[in-house]
């Protein structure tokens, strides 16, 4: 990123979510439509 640039994202789940299938995750998307999902095993 260049100096003074900012990053805009949309947060789907504001908190870390515990999923019934055994994972914790956090989800967001950027203005270009890319979807990011950060996952952690318990």
What's the layout of helices and strands?
Blueprint: E1 10-11, E2 17-18, E3 23-29, E4 35-41
Antiparallel strand pairs: 1-3, 2-3, 3-4
Features:
single chain, 42 residues, mainly beta, 4-stranded antiparallel β-sheet
Largest sheet properties? 4 strands, antiparallel
Class of secondary structure makeup: mainly beta
Mean pLDDT metric: 77
Q: Describe the global form.
A: elongated
Number-wise, the strands total 4
User: How many helical elements?
Assistant: 0
Query: Which sequence of SSEs, written as H and E, runs from N to C?
Result: EEEE
- How large, in whole angstroms, is the Cα Rg? 13 Å
Straight-line distance between termini:
33 Å
**Low confidence ranges:** none
Strand content: 35-45%
| Helix content percent band | under 10%
